[in-house]
Amino acid sequence: MIRLLLVDDDPLVRAGLSLMLGGAEDIEIVGEAADGAEVAAVVDRTHPDVVLMDIRMPAVDGLTATERLRARPDAPEVVVLTTFHADEQVLRALRAGAAGFVLKDTPPAEILAAVRRVAAGDPVLSPTVTRQLMEHAAGTAADRRKARARERIGALNDREREVAVAVGQGLSNAEIAAALFMSVATVKTHVSRVLAKLDLNNRVQIALLAYDAGLLEQSAEPEPDGH
Question: What is the pTM of this model?
Fold first, then answer.
């Protein structure tokens, strides 16, 4: 059973989500919050596995609430609710540790699928959407971000770096294992080491850091003939 917490300042949205998601056999709505300021207390009381978090709220927004929540030990996963898919705040929430996002007008079945995926440890973010977000956020800070990302990536050995790039390409553990000729267990070990070395808490953050460092652009370059 997936324990789900709903966070949105609109009571009608919360009621709709509760009705829509609470009917699933494998999901239990364990609590609701109307503002980011309430999230920590409700999490302590209800112990959710996943938090469905609105971005825009009047007192403490979903971005700040996500940052605070994901900085805690044993934090629940966070899925961001938003009305825009190319939004700087969404990107910041992902950098803060959200496992993905869904649009508020997403069909119910897809929101259910997103909650289930995140509860299972998989991000809800396609490489295409990651690129859209990154391109939206590109600007004067891009060079500084790239330099910082490359410095952090420098802590990885060659194999860990290859795995980080593959994660950034949206490959599953099984696909990475096949591409890099290693077992799935070894891939999981490398992913865990990458997370620990870079002080990250999920695969989405690995993907964003690899993108920031320019590694995904390099990996997309055509290979010479005969290879």
Answer: 0.70
